[in-house]
Amino acid sequence: MLDAVVVGAGLSGLVTARQLQAAGRTVQVLEAAPTAGGRMRRRQLTPGLAVDLGGQWGGDTHSRLLALVDELGLERFASHYDGEGLFRWQNEARRARLGADFDATLLFFDPDDLPLSADERREAAAVEEQFRRLVASIDPEEPWRSPDAAALDTITADAWLQGLGASAAARLPLQWLGRVGGSGGFELHQVSMLHLAWTQAASPQREVPEAWLLRGGAGQVAERLAADLGAAVHCGCPAVAIHQDSDGAAVMTADGDRHRCQAVVVALPPSQRQRLQFDPPLPADQAALQQRWPMGAMVKVLAVYPRAFWRDDGRNGLALGERAWLELTADTSPPEAEPGVLAGFIAADRALAFGTMAPAAQRACLLAELESLWGPEAGQPIDLIWHDWGAEPWTGGAFTAFPVPGTWTTFGDAWRRPHGRVVWAGTEMARRWPGYFEGAIRAGEAAAAAVIARQERSMRR
Questions:
Q1: Does residue 296 contact residue 392 with C-beta atoms inside 8 Å?
Q2: In this structure, are strands 2-7 and 258-266 parallel, antiparallel, or unpaired?
């Protein structure tokens, strides 16, 4: 009998298995997809160039990720923010400097450089200050116990802004945090104000979580972990049921295999857990929580050029503002600027609409948007890739999941609670940096520690 079976070979599941193996436990990892990595995946374009289809950035306070990257001997380099970015608003594109203090900026930019009136800048700053005060009141570990949690969990973030009479410019920073922030992929009418504030209490944008990149892509981290685990990782092997009794547990797979173990770690987003049949069944609150925690909608775009031409005249590749499709572009080129790579994102409702279009129309929209932001050269990439995470059958979206209004205060106690021998992992289970690689690692470490502690308690009885 195995000590543990891990369901899901994303970063969190791989970290869980690695920690258990290091502690001398026997473990198997069952992954439904053809390859390991989950939302940490890269594509090799040429022998010397790989791009990340999923997440790719790390931050200076991502201590677990930094330690893992260093242990694997991978090379980090700073994200390119030198020079001016581009802010597009009401059909006007303006070059703008990035501010040194995030709290004093309007979405990274110096407000004085933006095509906004003095009144718009003042109102945007006032709304941001109210939001920061609210974030400071949120308990990042148990948001449902925060002051005024019940009221905040019943009002949507969109309604909160409407109550302030916020203008379009004042709404933009919070809309961006919802759609593209690391806990994003949603519109503000889809989440409560409690949840939006919690994302910034637990995963603060002000700590610059996009500070650095990995040469060769972040996806190689998951590849290396899976390779080190070797035969313990079984891909193309969907788990369908988990049975528990007094003697242990068993995980059944779609091919009819039965994997006996002492504990199970389910390292899947909440909505994906609904594919599993639990015996005994999940308590009503945990089953309801999974139903109310859908995945965000996200399409990642990667435009590759012979060189990062935008740097030639002091531009840094960061573009934000009012566009039909792209919420953001960012320079993810290597330090030598060859090749040049712009990463972009289509998020939330726009991602869903984009997914209904024919590929030729999708390509035409992306080229037109890139050219409108960065000029004619941007409309002629040597490679243009877009990856719709909502079309991934074993993921269902990205970057992460979000609870609908009322979920935190009704079902918060069920969030991380084990179900007998079943422990939960995945970035959605992290108290710090949920929605990021850092959160996935922390959740995986916590799950492994819980399995080991349970076994040690059993041995003492």
A1: no
A2: parallel
**Average pLDDT score over the chain:** 96
Paired with 266 in beta bridges are: 7, 424
Where b means 16+ CB within 10 Å and e means fewer, 360-382 reads: eebeebbbebbebbbeebbbebe
CATH topology of domain 2-38+219-293+405-460: FAD/NAD(P)-binding domain (3.50.50)
Instruction: List CB contacts of 332: < 8 A, sequence separation 6 or more.
Output: 51, 52, 56, 79, 213, 302, 341, 342, 343
What's the per-residue H, E or C state across 219-279? Answer: HHHHHHHHHHHHHHEECCCCEEEEEEECCEEEEEECCCCEEEEEEEEECCCHHHHHHCEEE
CA distance 148 to 197: 12
Ramachandran angles phi, psi of 205, nearest 5°:
-60, -25
Contact yes or no for 143/193 (Cβ under 8 A): no
Q: How far apart are the C-alpha atoms of 124 and 50, rounded to whole Å? A: 39
The CA distance from 302 to 103, in Å, is 29
Question: Is residue 461's pLDDT more than 70?
Answer: no
What is the C-alpha separation between 232 and 440, in angstroms, rounded?
Answer: 20
**pLDDT tens digits, residue range 81-94?**
999 999 998 888 89
Domain boundaries, the chain: 2-38+219-293+405-460
**C-alpha span between 259 and 26 (Å, rounded):** 12
CA distance linking residue 340 with residue 317, whole number of Å: 10
Element at 5 (helix H, strand E): strand 2-7
Report which of residues 63 and 184 the model is more confident about: 63
